[in-house]
Amino acid sequence: MSQSRAPKVRVPSYSSLAAMKSQAYPEKSNWLGLGGKGHSASGHWRSALCRLTKEPDVDRCLLNIYVDVSQEVLTRLISLTLPPLQESVLFQTVYIHLLRQSDIRPADNSLFFRKDCIVIYSTEQQRWMASNNAEPVYLQFSKSELCNLWISLLRSYAVPEIYGRWLNRPNAGGSELQGGSYRMWREVQLTVASGRNLGISKLYDPSQTPDEVGQDVELKDIDVYCEIVLNDAVCARTTTKKGLGLPEWHESFMFSDLPPFENMEIAILKEKKVSKPSLLGKVTVDLVTFRRGEVVEGWYPVQSTNFSSQLQLGEIRLKVRVTEELILPHSSYSTLQQVLNTRNLLQWLQDLENILHIKTLLQPFINLAISQESIIEQIQDAAVWEIERAISSHQTIFRGNNIFTKTMEKCLVWYGNAFLEASIGNVLRRLLAEKVAIEVDPVRSGKPSKEVVKNVDLLIFWCREFWDQIYGAKESCPKEFCALLSTVRNLVEENGRRAELLPQMQQQRPWQSVSAFIFLRFIVPGILHPHLFGLCSGLPDPAIHRSLKLVAKVIQSMANLNAKGDQKEISMAPLREFIKQNMSRMMDYLAVVSTTRTTLYSTQRPDDRENRHAMNNLMVHIGSLPTLERESVAKPPSLIDPSRELAIITSAIIRYSRDVNNKTRARKLDNAALESLCTACFEVEAEALQRVNELAIRLAQERRRASASAAWSQHSAMISKSPSLGSIPNSKSSLPPTAYMPSTLQSHESHPRLLSLPEPEPGPAGNTPGGKVDIGRIDIGEGGTTRWSESTSENPDEGAKRKKSFMRGIFSGL
C-alpha cells in the first residue's frame, strides 16, 4: 500500500461533497468545460489523502481519495499533517487496474493555472464516487518530483498499450518473456498563434483570400479564448485576448502519452460580462490522417456550430506536430545504442543537421543522455573544441546559435525550472498582478518630463526587486549548472592565456562566457517571455511586456559587466549608477554559479517516509513485470523513456535518409559514421516490420479460424434439430463426446485464449474500460494508426492496403 498526504483534489461544485461547508470553500466559476466537450463546471480544491492499495491474491488495484471537509483549506498551503482519517470522507475510488496508462496523464497548467497536476480519466465502470459526476479526477501535488512519482506509480498498475501479448516472445537471453511484440506512444505539440476576422460571418469560399474576407466588414470588439479538446476531453485553454477580431496568443501546448488518435478540436469562445461564454466556432484537425513527425503551420478556418458548416467565422493560425511511434523492447535497440555511444552527441547532432538536414532531434538526444547520466560529461567534452574555434572577440563568445549553445540552453531549461522559479517567479508575477507599465523614453510615452522621471525611479525600484531575488537564489543553483558553467569558465580562461589576450580581456572574458549562458540564455529570456517558461499564463499585455523588456535590459547590462549600461538608448542613462553599484554583487553571483559542487548530478529522492515507501513499492512492482510492461513505465524523477527516445531518433533518421529507389535502405552518404547510424536504424525498422507482419498474420489466421468454428457450430446445431438426421445411427449428431471432430473445431477447442486476447482497447480517453478485447475487433487502419471497430466482413485487398499504409506511416511518414 502507498499513500500521500500532500495532494489537493478538485471537487466539482455540483457534487454532494461540495455542498458541505460551502461557505468555507469559495471559488469563482470559470465556465470551463473540463469533463468533456460542452460541459461547464466550477469546483474547489481541498486537501486530500490518496491511498493506493493492491488487493492480495486478486489482480485489483484501488486508488481511494479521502477529502478533508472539516477545515478551510483554500487559504493555506498544503499541510504536512492532515486531520485523522475519521474526519475525512471517501470522495472517490478509482479502479486503476481497469484503466489504460493513457488515462493517467499530467494535466496542462492552463486548465486551472496550477502546476504539478495529474488528471485521471475514467468511466462509471472504472470508479465509485459519492455523487453522480462525470468529471475526471484532478490531483495537485506540492512538488514536481512527487507528481512524477505518482504518475509512474499509478501507470505501473494500469494497462499499457501493448500489442501481441499472447505471442509469448522470450527475451534474447531467454530468461523472461517480453510481454508482447511492441507498444505505441503518441504526442501532439500545438501552438495557437493568432486569429483574424474572428466573428465575421461569411460563407466559406476556398478561392477567396483571408484579406478579401475582411474587406468592407466592420470588425467586432470581442474577447475570445480557445479550448483544446482531444478525443472529446478538454485538455487545455488559452488566455483571454481582447481585440477587434485579431487576437495574438502565441501559446504552446504539449500533450503526451495519448490514446489512439481521433480528432483535435480548438473551440473559440467569446466571453461575456454578465453571462457565461458562448461558442463562436471551432476548428477540427483530423489527427488520424495527419502527417507524422513534421511541423504543419497555417491558417485554419473557424466553422460555425449553429448553422451550416459552410459558414466561416474567421481563422486562427496553428502550428501542429503529431508524433506516433511504435516502440520495441529496449534490447532491440542495442546495436543502435552501441553506434550512438561511439561519438559525442553534439557530433551526431552536427552531422544530422548539416548532412541530413534534421533539426528535430536535439531534445531526444539530450533526453537519452540525461537518462544515462552522461549529458554533463558529453557537453564538457564538446566545450573543449567549441572554445578552441570560438571567435577571439570577448564580445561575441557564445552569443551565436549553434549546436553547442542550443544544447546548453536545453540543459539549462531541463535542470533549472525550480531555480528559475526561485530566481524571478514571485517578483515577476507581482509585477504582472499590479499591471506595472513603465516607459522611460519620452518619445514613446509622449508624457511630460516629470512623468518620465517618475518612471525612471519606478524602473530602478523593479530592477532592484528582480536583482535582489536573483542574487538571493544563487545558492540554489543546480549542481548540473555549476559543473557546466565551471567547465566553460576554466576553458575560456585557459584559452585566453594561450592566446595572450589583453589583461582586461583575459579578466572579463571567462565571466562573460558564464553570463552568456546563465543570463543571456536563461534568466533574461525568462523575464522577457515568462509564459514560455511556465512562470505565467499567456503573453503579457504590450504595456507590461515593455516593462519587462526594460528590466531585462538592465539585468543583461549588469551580466555583460558593462558599467556604462545601454549606450544605444539615451533614456536608459539614469540606470548607470544602479548598474555600477551592483557590479561587485554580479561578480560574486557569477563566481557562485560557476563553482563545481561535490557531485555532478543532483540526487532527487523523496523527502518523507511515505513517499520513499511509494518509490520502493514502485521499483519492486515494475521489477516483477514483463519486459514491455516494465519499460512502459517511465522512471521518476525524469520520466524519460529511453526506448521511446531511440524510437523517435530511428523514425526521423529513416524518414530523411531513405533511398528513393530502395525503400529498405539509406541513400549513399559521404560519412562513414552517419552511414553506420542509418544502417542500425534500418535494422530496427526491419525488426519492427517483421513483428507487425507476424501479429497481423496471426490475427488474420485466428479470425478465419474463429469464423470457421462459428460456422461449424451453427451447422451442427441445425443438424441436431433435424428429426430425420437424429434417427440415422451413423450421423455426427449421435457421436459420443470422444468421437472425431473436424480440424477447425478441434483447433478452436485447443486454443481457447486466442478468442479473447489480453490486448488494450484504444478509444476516446475515459470512454472505454481497458481489458480483454475480442479478436474480431482488431483492425489495422490507415495512416500509421490502429483502429478498433466491431467485427465486420471486409475486402481482403482493403485490409492489405491498410496494413501496408500502417507500417509505412509509422517509420517513414509516407
Would you give an account of this structure?
- This protein has 814 residues and is α+β, with helices and mostly antiparallel strands.
- It has four domains: 2-158, PH-domain like, CATH 2.30.29.30; 182-327, Sandwich (Immunoglobulin-like); 378-593, Orthogonal Bundle (GTPase Activation - p120GAP, domain 1); 688-714 and 742-812, no CATH class.
- Helix content is 39%, strand content 18%.
- It is built from 23 helices and 24 strands.
- Strands 1, 2, 3, 4, 5, 6, 7, 8 and 9 form a nine-stranded antiparallel beta sheet that branches.
- A hairpin with a 6-residue loop joins strand 3 (43-54) and strand 4 (61-68).
- The model is unreliable at 14-41, 71-86 and 721-814 (pLDDT under 50).
List keywords for this structure.
single chain, 814 residues, alpha+beta, PH-domain like, Immunoglobulin-like, GTPase Activation - p120GAP, domain 1, 4 domains, nine-stranded antiparallel β-sheet, six-stranded antiparallel β-sheet, 39% helix, disordered C terminus
